[in-house]
Amino acid sequence: MKLYFILIIFGIVCFSFNSCKKDQYYIFDDIPRVQFGPPISTLKLNEYTDSLKSETFFYESKDTHQDTVYFDIYTVGETSKKDRKYQLQQLQLQGVENAIPGKHFIAFEDPAVADLYVIKSDSVHTRVPIVILRDGELKNKTVNLGISIVANANFAIGEPTKSWRKLQFTDRLSQPNAWTASYSTYYFGAYSVRKHEFMIEVTGQRWDQNFIATLPLDQMNYYKSVLGMAVIDYNIQHPSAPLRAENGDLITFPN
Amino acid sequence: MVLSCSKDKSNYDYSENEHIDIEGIESKYAVISLKDTLKISPTAKSNKEGELEYRWGFYETNVQGRTEPLDTIARSQNLRYFITEDAKDWIAVCIVKNKKTGYTQYKTATVTVSTQFTRGWYVLKDDGTNSDLDLYLTPQNNSVNGKIENVYSTANNQKIAGKANFISFSSSYKSNILNPASYSNTRALFLVTEKDVQAINVNNLKKIRDKQNLFLGGPQTISGTTGAFVGSSANYILNNGQLYNIYAMSANTGQFGNKAMIDGNNSAYELSKFMISSSSNDPILFDNIGGNFVTLANGSGSSMTIFSNDANNDFSTTNNNQKALFLGMKSNVYLPTPDYYYKTVGYAILQDKTDPSLKSLCMLEKNKYVLKIKKDSIGPSSKLYNASLHTLLFEDENLLYFVNNNQVYSKNLSNSFEQLQFSAPGGEQITFIKHLKYLESGYAFNFFVIGTKIGSNYKIRMFTKNSGNLDSNPAQTLEGTGTARAIIYIAPSVYDSTYPCSY
C-alpha cells in the first residue's frame, strides 16, 4: 500500500518538474518565402482555397482576344522597403493537354508581363495575373496551365502544398467546378454542354463558376423548377427532336 | 488488487438537499412594447444558509433561422424592465443563486409583448379601386375598444392597389427586417387584392414585400384568382390561378419560387380561389380547367400531386369535369398510432361544366394523398342551389352557412335541413361571411361574422351562436368606410396553427 502511494507521489513530482519548463517563444528567423493563398476577402474565413480555377471565353464578345485570371500570393517573413520580384514557371501536368506559351497564354518571362510579378514594398500580398489568349482551337478544347513558384534571389518557396496553382480554360462551355456530384443529384442532373447552353438560353444567367457557387438555396430551387418546366415545354414543341445531351441522353432536371 | 484494498473513507452527506423557493412570479405577463415596464418583485428562500443573489434573463420563443441568446437584463431582486422587444411571446427567467453553496434555482414566466398593432380585429376593405386596413383594438378582452382607421396607408403612406380579396397570417414567413444579415421568422399579414399581394410586418404594419419583389424571378403582374395562405411547412400564394410556394423549413429570403406544375407535362391549370389548408397539413386545392383535386406534397417540389381516389368515390379526384363554387375546411384531426397524420375533412360545392344546372355538395376526407369524395346532389329547390357565399363552422356544429338573395342560411350537413339565420336590413348587401374562433384566455371568442355594405360604408356583425343558430342580436358590430371583404383577429399568441386557412 505504502509503495503504491510513494510511486504515485514520485510520478506527480516528476510531472510537476516537467510542466514547469519555461515556454519557448518562436521568433521568425527564416529567409523570405512566397506561397499562394486565398483571396484577401476570404483570408479570415478559410486559410485554404481551391488550387484550381476555370475560365472560359464563351461569355465574352468576339472582340475579346485575351483575358486575365488572378491568383493570390503571400510572402512569409518580414516586409521589405523595396519591390521584390517573384518568379513563376509553367508546370507540365500529366494526363491533360497543357497550355502552350505564346499560343494559349503569355509566358511568365515575356517582357509584356514579366514586370507584373512583383511584391510591392511594404506589402505581403499581391494578385498574380495570368494572361490567357483566345486561340481559335479553344472553341473545341480545354487546355490546362500548371503554375509553380520558382525560388529566386528574393524568395524561397513557401509551403510545398501552396507552391502551385492550376488553371483550366477554354472558349466553349465547360462544367464549372461548383457543379459537383451532389449538385447533379439534388438540383440540375447530369452535366452536358447542351444542358448548360439550355440553362443560359432559358434564364439569361451565365451559369459559370461564380454564379453557381454563390447561388442561394431558394434561388437554386427556383431555377431547378424553371428549367424543369422549360425542358417539358421544349419537348412538347419539338416532339420529334426532344432536348438531348451530346451523348444522346434525354436532358432532364430532378423534380 | 492494490486499489480494491484501499480503505473506504467516503464522507456521504445524508442531510437534506438544498432547494430554493421562488415566489411572486406569475406564469404569464402581458405588456406593450415601448410603453410598459415589466415589474416583478419576487422573494426567494433557501433551506440552507447563505446570501441569495438574483439574475434576470430574457429570451424569445419560436426562433428559427438564428440562435436565441439569453440576454441578462438585471442583477437585482426586483425587476424593472422597460419593454422594447418586438411583439411576440418572450420568456423572462429569474435565476437565484445561493452564493455560499453555489446552488441555483430558476423560474420562468411567459411575457406576451404587444404593440398597438398586435392585438385586434383587422378588416381588409376597399373603396372599389384601392384597399386598406382598419384595426379595431381589443385591449382588455374580445370587446372592441378603439379603432385605427386606414392603418395600412397610415403606416405606408399609400393604399394597396386593387379591390380586396383575402387576408391571412403567417408566423413562419421569413424576412430580414430584424437583422439585415439574417432571414428569420417574421409575424406577417398577407393582404391579397385583385392587383397585389403584400406581406406586412404585424408589429408596425410596414410593408415587407409586394408584387415587385415577392417572387424570385422578378416583379409579377397580379391578376385573376389570387390568394395567400399557410400549409404544412410552406407559405403559398395564388396568382392568376397558379400556385407559388416557399418551403418554410429551408433557408429562404421570403420570396416565392416558380409556379408549381400540375403534372409532368406542364399542363394548363387554373386553381380556384378556395383552399382547405392548415399549418399541419398540405392543402386541398381544385383545378377548374382539368377538374382535379390537387396538393403540393410536403410543401415543396416543382410539381403538384393530384389526389388518388378512394375506392368508393362518387366523384373522381381527376378529370371530373367540375368547377369549384366553394371549398372549405370542417375539421382537421390528428390520428395517433398507427396512422400518425392529420385527417382533414372539408366540403366542396361543385358545378358540372357540361350541364351547369348540375350542382353537388361533396364531403371531402383527406387521408394523406387519398381523397375520399361523397357526393350529394343539390336540387334547384334548395336555397343552397343559388348561393353566392359559403363558409363552414370549423370544428363546431355540423353546419354549412351560405348567402342566398342577401340572406344568410344554414344547412345541416347531417340532415340537409336549411334554416334562415339572418336577413340583411334594407339597403345592406352582404359582402362576406366567416366563422372565427380563438382560444386565448381572456380574449377567447367564437363568432359567426357577417360583413355588409351600405352605400360607401360597411358593417360587420359578430354573432355568437347557440346550437349552431345565430343569436338574434350580434355581440358586437364594427362600422367603417369602404367595402369590407375579409377579417382576421391578430394577437401575440396567434400563430400559423391558430386558424385554418379557408373561406
Largest sheet of chain B: 5 strands, mixed
> Percent of residues of chain B in helical segments?
under 10%
Let me know the average pLDDT of chain A.
Answer: 88
Beta fraction of chain B: over 45%
Q: Which residues of chain B sit in consecutive blocks of at least 5 with pLDDT less than 50?
A: none
Count the domains of chain A: 2
User: What fraction of the residues of chain A are assigned to beta strands by DSSP?
Assistant: 15-25%
Q: Tally of extended strands of chain A?
A: 10
- Quickly count the helices of chain A: 6
**Second rung of CATH, namely the architecture of the largest domain in chain B:** 7 Propeller
Can you walk through the features of this model?
- The complex is a heterodimer of chains A (255) and B (503).
- Chain A contains 6 helices and 10 strands.
- Chain A has helices at residues 2-19, 111-114, 181-188, 193-203, 209-213, 217-237; strands at residues 33-37, 52-56, 66-76, 84-85, 87-91, 118-119, 125-133, 142-150, 156-157, 164-170.
- In chain A, α4 packs across α6 (217-237).
- Chain A is globular, with a radius of gyration of 26 Å.
- The N and C termini of chain A lie far apart (73 Å).
- Helix content of chain B is 1%, strand content 51%.
- The radius of gyration of chain B is 27 Å and the shape is globular.
- In chain B, the strands form 11 sheets. A 5-stranded mixed sheet of chain B has the order 2-9-8-5-6, with no helix packed on it. In chain B, strands 10, 11, 12, 13 and 40 form a 5-stranded antiparallel sheet that branches. Chain B has a 5-stranded mixed sheet with strand order 25-29-28-27-26, with no helix packed on it.
- Chain B folds into 2 domains: 20-114, Immunoglobulins (Immunoglobulin-like, Sandwich), CATH 2.60.40; 120-490, 7 Propeller (Methylamine Dehydrogenase, Chain H), CATH 2.130.10.
- Classes of the chains: A alpha+beta (255), B mainly beta (503).
- Chains A and B meet through α6 of A and loops of B.
